[in-house]
Amino acid sequence: MTATLTVALAYLLGSIPFSFLVARWFGVSDVRRVGSGNVGAANVMRSAGKAAGTVAFLLDAAKGAAAALLARDLAPGNALLPPLAAAAAVIGHMYPVWLRFEGGKGVATGAGAFLPLAPVATASSLLVFLVVAAATRYVSLGSVAGAVSLGIAVLAFEPRGPVSVTVVLVAGLVVWKHRGNLERILRGTERRLGAPRT
Questions:
Q1: Mean pLDDT of all residues in the chain?
Q2: Could you tell me which of 30, 35, 176, 165 has the C-alpha nearest to residue 107?
Q3: Rounded CA gap, 63 and 58, in Å?
Q4: pLDDT band, residue 195 (cuts 50/70/90)
Q5: What is the pLDDT of residue 159?
Q6: Which helix (H) or strand (E) covers residue 182, if one does?
Q7: Is residue 122 part of a domain?
Q8: CA nearest 103: which of 151, 71, 52, 56?
Q9: In terms of C-beta distances under 8 Å and separation of at least 24 residues, what long-range contacts does 69-75 make, across chains too?
Q10: What does the alpha-carbon distance between residue 129 and residue 7 come to, in Å, rounded to a whole number?
C-alpha cells in the first residue's frame, strides 16, 4: 500500500504544471498556445524570457528530485521504489492530470528525478545536453542527445539494477516525445535557440 501511494504521489508531484504556471506569472496566458506548444522550460524561455525559462526549469527539476527523494526516505531499504517514483514524476510531467494530460517532454523533470539516484550518469548527460544545445542552438537536439547519453552513461557508470532499467526506459520515452522535433530538424524548420519570434 505504501508503495502504491508513493508512486501515485510522485505522479501527482510530476503533474504540477510549473512551466504552465511560471509562463502565466510572466504574462503568457497559456504556454500551450504559443511557440512550440510544449509545456516545458524551453518553450517558456522562448515565449516568456530567459528568467521565466530558468525558473520553470529549476521548478520542474525540483519536483522530480522531490519525488525520488521522498520515495527513498519512505522506503530506505527498497531499491525499486525510488526509480519507480522518479519515472512516475516524469510521466506526470508528460501527462499531467491538471492539464488534461497535455504536458511537456520530461527533460528537466527527468534530470531532477534521476540526479539523486544516478548522479554521475545524470551529470554527464546534462553536460552533453549543454554542449549539443550550445553547438547547434537546437534545444530539442540537446535534449535528445542528453537522454541518449543518460541511458548509455547509467549502464557505464552506475550499478546495474532497477535504477539503470528505469533510466533507460525513461530516456527512451523522452526521445520518443521529441520525434516531432527531430522531423522538423531534418526538414530544416525547427526553431533554433535565440531565433527571433515569428
A1: 92
A2: 176
A3: 9
A4: low
A5: 73
A6: helix 179-187
A7: yes
A8: 56
A9: 69/116, 70/6, 70/9, 70/10, 70/13, 71/6, 71/7, 71/10, 72/116, 72/117, 74/2, 74/6, 75/2, 75/3, 75/6
A10: 28
User: What pTM did the predictor assign?
Assistant: 0.92
Q: Cell match 500551450: residue?
A: 32
Q: Could you tell me which of 178, 133, 176, 170 has the C-alpha nearest to residue 151? A: 170
Domain count, the chain: 1
Residues in CB range of 159: below 8 A, 6 or more apart: none
Whether 89 is in a domain gets the answer yes
Q: Does 195 map to a domain?
A: no
Question: For residue 23, which of 47, 54, 59 has the smallest C-alpha distance?
Answer: 47
Within a domain: residue 64?
yes
Cα 149 from Cα 183, distance rounded (Å): 20
Q: Do the Cβ atoms of 7 and 84 come closer than 8 Å?
A: yes
CB 121 within 8 A of CB 157: yes
Model pLDDT for residues 50-106, shown as the tens digit of each residue: 999 999 999 999 999 999 999 999 888 899 999 999 999 999 999 999 998 989 999
**What pLDDT digit, counting tens, does each position of 97-112 carry?**
999 898 999 999 999 9
